[in-house]
Amino acid sequence: MATPWRIAVVGGGIAGLAAAVQLRDHAPDGTEVTVYERSGALGGKLHTGELAGGPVEFGAEAFLMRDASGGESAVVSLIRRLGLADDIVHPTVGQAALLAGGELHPVPRGTLVGVPGDLAAVATVARPTAEADVDTGRPLLAPGADVTVGELVRGRLGDEVVDRLVDPMLGGVYAGRADNLSLAATMPALARQARVEHTLVGAVRAAQAAAPRAPGTPFFGTLAGGLSTLVEAAAAASGATIQRNATVRALTPAETGWRLTIGPNGDADHVQADAVVLAVPASPAARLLDDVAPAAAENIGDLAYASVALVTLALPEATLPALSGFLVSTGEGLVMKASTFFTTKWGHLRRPDGLALVRASVGRFGDEAQLQRPDADLVATTHRELSTVLGDALPTPVATHVQRWGGSLPQYAPGHLDRVASARAVLRAERPTLALAGAGYDGVGIPVCVRSGMAAADEIITALKGSGE
């Protein structure tokens, strides 16, 4: 039996790094953890860069401060563990807008990812069909049932609520469409209440009541030094050996665990591990599992992903509205689907030279043609569309950056959670020293990925202790 444990974490995004920290904290002393990252950089979609001499996020920009129960989110707990709590900052401007009918409207308060619990509150943006949301004497969803968000909301509150409220919010998070995305995977709190409540408005209100937020409590946070500081601190605290540019190409059962094949074909290395955390997207995970756990691979292998491009402009002496940014409703005819006014939203990013940093997001699932445009074309289109939306010609940018994230956002079809649960059940029964972690399985967002990585590490620890390794 191998002592100390040797554990491989495949994937150096935040889920994999959270798993490595959890192993460092809870595995027996002497445990050897190695993180294998196929690219040259850790952090995945957490990537702080520089534009016009100042910091800017080229990936995720913020995290939720609270979890679904109202407690501290997993990433905030990790940040405290890493000694970075004093670096947490919050938006100084929290009001966002919706572009609907060619005009910017304040995002209505009190919705659940755009689904209203108070129909009057959204009347300036959409006209709900309240007469369709009737009590039929039974819950909206049967136990264990799952539908697309669009199917439920269109049937109960009408097309405008979906197109003008729900779709832009889901598009901002998932780069997907309400008519394709699983309710249970993208809006779990609403799905739980829909299995109890008889109306959609009632289900929204019940979900909101189950996770109350104290007035004035910050909803979002980020780190003053940029989210890459979280990545660096997690990597250091984990004590793991970090292997960059190291693609794991195969997993083979070995006498005491696993044999990993790493590196280019024809010149690969082989290493041994007692257990493996697969913190990679569903498709590469399925390829690695295909021979050793085919039923698990089948359950996760068909998950689709959307690609996006983030276009950031540094604008001199730009006059921007007092908004954190805006979302674009369906049918507005724009290439971009959202925009964030970084230097308005985040006070710590404001610059003494008055330069404004504005980012736009381009690309939705099924609309990848827009992403084939050259960088210069995306920059010019973004600048033109922003000028049109704001009603004034913006100044010529002094610097620009286009970050392309190919295949980055999972598109959870109905039944996704059941398929993931089935895959994990197969692994626990047949391959307990393999565990899955990351957005492809448990949801997008930094807190969810951190929690997923930690849970995978806990499963590995339990499995190895149970096997007597």
Form type: globular
Number of helices: 15
Low-confidence stretches: none
Q: How are the strands of the largest sheet arranged? A: 8-7-18-19-20-17-21
Helical percentage: 25-40%
Number of strands: 22
Which range does the strand content fall in? Answer: 15-25%
Computed structural class: alpha+beta
Biggest beta-sheet profile: 7 strands, mixed
* Cα-to-Cα separation, first versus last residue: 6 Å
| Rg over C-alpha atoms, rounded to the nearest angstrom | 23 Å
Mean pLDDT reading: 94
Description:
- By secondary structure, the protein is α+β, with helices and mostly antiparallel strands.
- Helix content is 33%, strand content 23%.
- The protein has a seven-stranded mixed sheet with strand order 8-7-18-19-20-17-21, sandwiched between helices.
- A hairpin with a 6-residue loop joins strand 14 (257-262) and strand 15.
- The longest helix has 22 residues, at 446-467.
